[in-house]
Fold:
Amino acid sequence: MLFPVPDGVEPASIASVSDNVVDGWRTVGPTLAEHPGAPVLGSRLVQHRLYAVQCALALGAERVDYLDTSTDRLAWPSALARNPVEGPPPRRAGRYPVTVDASGDQAGLACALRSTEPGGTCTSVGSTSARRPLCRCSRCTSAA
Structure:
């Protein structure tokens, strides 16, 4: 994915954009194409995974609810005027056609799965540790 870097932009600052933006789109794009305007739930979308929030908004999600325990991480989605919710993941956060989890823990993934409505899509990109992956870049489609 070679393209010219605009004047004034440091190449190192955008080196991973072609990978990260695509990953953010992958987590929400296909399901939002099937359910235009659907709400999206994101959980602890650290660093570049916040591209999922931006992609959901650009693709017309009616709202993006964002769960996290960190006030620092919550500030970024809040700046996008979305619905940040501070605290540990609840058992279920509601019913969403699209859920994205990067919490890296079983409670976060369980909340995302329970919050995915029948026929919806839950994507997890977290892991519990470097040695024991919880789930890596997978897409689970809920049947019930």
